[in-house]
Write a structure and sequence with these properties.
The protein is of the alpha+beta class and 114 residues long. The protein is built from four helices and four strands, in the order E-H-E-E-H-H-E-H. The chain has one domain: Alpha-Beta Plaits (2-Layer Sandwich).
Length: 114
């Protein structure tokens, strides 16, 4: 899997326009082949901080997305930023869920009984 994250600061004057562009992009991206999830977040403490997170099945699907016309809209929103964006692509070799918490908690309980 590959996770793409883009953190950008958008000025208050351009925030609504950028959110509209990104929201429209997400609606289309989530149906692209290989897209596992696509989410847009706003920071509750830092006004204008927006994060776009996408999760892709593999690098090939991500590369196809990055070359698409749909991605041009995302680039447009990035260019609206008031600061240099933070863009990251991370390869995920393994993923787990609640079982990791259960495993850790079980070890904690077992060590307290000794």
């Amino acid at each position: 899997m590959v996770r793409s994250t883009i953190r950008m600061y958008i000025s208050p004057k351009k925030l609504n326009e950028a959110l509209e562009i990104l929201g429209s992009s997400i609606e289309q991206t989530q149906f692209e082949p290989g897209c596992i999830s696509c989410r847009l977040y706003r920071d509750a403490q830092e006004e204008g901080l927006v994060m776009l997170e996408e999760l892709w099945m593999n690098d090939e699907d991500l590369q196809h997305h990055l070359r698409s016309e749909k991605y041009r809209k995302i680039l447009l929103a990035i260019e609206m930023g008031s600061k240099k964006p933070e863009i990251r692509f991370e390869t995920i070799a393994q993923s787990s869920g609640v079982e990791t918490i259960e495993k850790a908690r079980t070890k904690t309980v077992a060590s307290k009984k000794r």
